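Z., the sequence and structure:
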Amino acid sequence: MDLLARLGLFGRRVLLLHHDDLGLTHAQNSAYQALGFPTGSVMVPGAWASGVRGEDLGVHLVLTSEWPAPRMRPLTEGESLRDEAGYFPSSLEVLWQRARLEEVERELRAQIEAAKRLFSPTHVDTHQGAVLRPDLAEVYLRLAQEYHLVPLVPESLEGLGVPSVFLPDLERLLAQAPFPKVRFLDAYGLPPEECLGFYLDLAKLPPGLYHVVHHSALPTPEGRALPDWQTREADYFALSHPEVRRVLAEFHPLTWRMVRDAL
């Protein structure tokens, strides 16, 4: 699907700047409001999900809860999605070993339905790439179609940590998916001191459709309770920097709402 040609943007540098993990903390939600970029996705099982308001919000589908605290629980009763304390599994490896397909579908559907009661979702993506087990990816794409939402589909699986055993079926499934593919970029794995350089280097990108993910959070005591608070604050300060704002202004801005309306 040549989305950029359909939008009259062929040959342009086009940017979906996406705020991940909304609803996780008040610091995360407050950074979304302070930065003023419209696109993000909400963790519906998160404690602050009901506090997010915006014009281009998606559902950040959750199947794992990786930190000692805060932790998230499923909205449904699926035993394969719960650890001994009732929380989501703490790792992708445990999730992919244990998750029963029918229980995953019920949970993803419940999260989308809950999101619809909070806001008007435009798209879906997934926390930690949890749906990259091929059978779960099929459910993810099918539910996106059913609910008329645009799913995040990466142009390449390279660098996403997908187990090699998953790759043949997953690549075939994503290649056949009737949705636009985006070039996925994320500074999350970088040391915080390299975050500003990551955003400034966007100026070097060639034409294409880019999905740049950030996890910005304000520098508050609550935000600093997260183990990765330095990375989240680095995103926030970088995206507030005037030189980064100048680089972002060189791209044609896009929202998932605009993508959905063009399909």
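The longest strand covers residues 13-22. DSSP finds ten helices and eight strands in the chain.

Let me know what you think.
H.
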